[in-house]
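User: Please predict structures.

Assistant: First:
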Amino acid sequence: MLTSLSIKNYALIDHLSIQFERGFSAITGETGAGKSILMGALSIILGKRADTRVLNNKTTKCIIEGTFDISSLNLQPFFTKNDLDYDAITFVRREILPSGKSRAFINDTPVNLTTLRALGNRLVDIHSQHQTLMLASSNFQLEALDGYVGNGSLLAAYKDVFKQYATLKNELTTLQQQQYELKKEEDFLNFQFEELDKAALNEEGFKKLEERQQFLSHAEEVMNALGVANSIIFEDEHNLIDRIALIKETLSSIAPFYPKADELIERLESVRLELKDMADETAGMLSEGEVNPAELAELTEKRDEIYRLQQKYRASTVGELIALKKEISDQLLNISGVDEKIEKVTKALDKTTKELQKQAGALTNSRKSGMAGFISAIKKVLGKLGMKEAVFEIRLTNLNEFTATGTNRVDFWFSANKGVPAGEISKIASGGELSRLMLAIKSLISEKSMLPTMVFDEIDSGVSGDIAGKTGNIMLEMAKNHQLIVITHLPQIASKAHHHYKVYKQTIDETTRTNIVLLDNNQRVEEIAAMLSDETVSQVAREAAKDLLR
């Protein structure tokens, strides 16, 4: 439960601190005194977004801190999961800085808004006048039915499967779109791949092809040159090999008396042997150098085809063409891979859909079986609120699609008056009737809820007289199991509370501030008497206030 609330520099509040007790607490005050400001501050420490507009003094930060007794709520797993220090008395703090930034803390550990909101949803249920208007929403009505029937576990199990279903469905849609785009290119990619594959691309092979083609294109010139070289080295009458032999013979004649000649003779022998090898090699080249026009044509065609592919695909080398072929191959494999993924995801989606249908069916059955009890309980509470002739119906419609809450639509049909057929709430109920119906729903759901604290911000709008007293009695019943904090303008309700707080404005040095005080018995008499009076509080009003408090 909420044990204290401290607020600094928020709206009209400079600094105030409130202690809260168990049971039923009423908050009253004149219109505009700032009652709802308190609820706004409480909402902020429960995870509501805020900005610098809430700052009273724009040069300093706003600090809102709440203290909660969570000893009976079994929240240790939540604290462990979020790496937070658990304490039975937990502090939640929010700071809004002049820069516009916001910081949140749980037991002095910084947390994000998602974590703060997740904890807040387990601590407090704040009902505002805006929520009463939501009573006409089918989503709210479905949530109310589920809350009463106790479908929390079923709904959580369904939502887990629905999350998988939605993920798989989105994945399948993405893959199918990807497949559609790829299929449009598949024929063209296949053509490109076959064209490159047919060219039998190989960097080393292309280099040899070019060399062979060049040789065959100039074969006659090559043979002539090789013939001349062979003749000079070996075949002519005065060939180089014979001439070197003659030089060796000449030098040998002087070797006995000129030792350096031996060195020259050795060197000449090396030259002779090298020339002999060159003669044999050129002779071999001449024997292999027969020109083949068909081979030349074939090689020229292959070379020209690769040049054409380079030009077509804007590639400067055969290596770039090979890389392009690999890229196209990967794209074609990707198309095949997408097909396989679609098949795999489709099977998973079919399996998940069957499980989702099962979960949705369990929800539908639970809702159908719980409807009669909910209707009966609502009518009973409405009778206590002065609407004994009220008609309340629930119409459950099966949808043809899965939603985040199942495959049902729920509509509440209502009539507060005898002889008036039930109709849609938004078209038939007045403000006061809506308030009483909402209170009836909240009182029933609170019996099933584990939330320790409930806050009503003027849920009694449109209610007065005897009905106000009956409304207070319902709230008193709710406060047996929950801490109930009610902002009210009705003395009949305020008098039922165990604790009574008054919100008021003070003007000091031409500055208006909102403050709050816990009233003692005498102060309660005066406050309730003021709520019963016009401008001046009469003794009659005080006696009436005492009577209400009794």
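Second:
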Amino acid sequence: MMLPKKRSFKSRLVLSYFLVVLLSFGLVAFFLDKKLEENSLHDLKASLVNQAALINSQISFKSTEKENRDYLWQLVKDLSQRISGRLTIIDTKGKVLADSEKSRFETEEMENHAMRPEMKAALAGRTGESIRYSATLKIDMLYVALPVKDNSSVAGAIRLALPMESVKRNLLAIRQAVFLGFLFALGLAFVFGSMLASGIIKPINKIIHASHRFSDGDFSRKIFYSSEDEIGELAKNLNKMAEDIENKVKEVNIQSQQLRAVFNSMIEGVIVLDNKARVVSVNHTVEAIFGVTKKETEGKLFLEGIRNNDIADEIKKVLEDAASVSKELALTWPVQKIFQVNISPIIDKGAIGGCLVVIHDITEIRRLETMRRDFVANVSHELKTPLTSIKGFIETLLGGALEDKDNSRHFLEIIQEHADRLNDLINDLLELSHIESREIRLDKEKTVLFDLVETVISGFGSQLNKKGIKVENSISRELIVWADKDKLGQVITNLLMNAVKFNKDSGFIKIYSEIIQDNQIKIVVEDSGLGIPAKDIPRIFERFYRVDKARSRQLGGTGLGLSIVKHIIELHSGAVGVESTEGLGSKFWFTLPV
């Protein structure tokens, strides 16, 4: 279906001028025509009355008598030619005595005229007049009748008649002149109306063009119109409005950018839903948590975009009850994490317009809480074991064993061993606490890794010989790193100590380096020992974490060595890791900037 074409304002304005002129001139022409017609008839009637009066003065009462009919007939014929009109004379009874348009015989046969309006008035002694269709001549005629008096009495009537064609011709000529003037006025109205409308429409078109730019968001160009009329005032108001809108748009854009930046930079996952549980927006954290994209989720129902029934159930409750919900949920898909989910209703004009879902990842918090509990338990256990042994042997000595010189010395050696273990544990705890506080100052210097490793290996000579373990140092002699030599030596010592402790007899240890990306070097300590079960690898660098607790204590150590390694390497802007297969040995590695 085609829409009707809109009529332009200019055409309507020109048409209005045209209609005003048409209506005004039409009314003027109508009343002028009526007035001219009335004046023409009045003048014609006055002329006929005057002519009839003159003719009436030439007709005597005696001429109406039958013996004077010849004279009357001849008089009618002569006078009608002079006035170019029809002349009729009747007696008091209405009988036609003479008629300029009829012969004598036809006159005798003419009908009685006593009841004709003009004749009726004339026989009554008044001047009569009438316009009507003449059945005799078959045209419209103007009739004027005067009484013929004999002293004071009416002896008959005289009537003059003129055809209306002359009047109509005069009126037609006048009407033609008026019509031509009317057409000329309409033409002028159209021309001047078009010119005037163009002058009005031109600034309006400028305003329309500018408003289109404003609607498209371009507020840089203003409307230039210097006139002080209403259109000028409109242009000024539009310019002011555009300036205000531009400022508001800039302000809204800045606020929108700020909100978008805050929204997308939040570490919490944020989901905005409408009252039908359709996703309005999600931030990058939600995309990362659930492995989805904005395109996949926005505009869809929550379960269509993010398939998690636990959160969907809570959203349903909030939309139904309009009450906030805060709940801790353990998600198993797409990631196995613990989240604190807070859902709040969005109230719009007293009704629920949707809800806001904030998902906070508390997995690390819970993990740290678990580590803290484990740490407290492990520290307590690590301290309690040597203290219990020390207390037991002291009680034994105080109970009389002190006098037994052979056993008392053995008991004191055991007490000393446990005291040394406590001292090592406390020293490692203090060292780890000092490192974790990040208040430690690294004394970095150029360090030749090969020489440092050789120095550390030389300190394990007796232990290596005792278990028959061979150590291979494959680090390049030219490899130099910028590091704290003492701290780096502690790292290599702890890694080498573990490689010796948990290695098998006649095993091997390899220490080598690899160049990796971003100007980083990777140092690997590989052993042929027991290996680490896959389930224990993620926690191997935690404090006091032991794969085989009974064997670890039997071999000595505090359980803090790998944790110290991790923190020292992180202070050097490096990273640590392990690759291991149970029963096939392990590869502990760390990276350093070259």
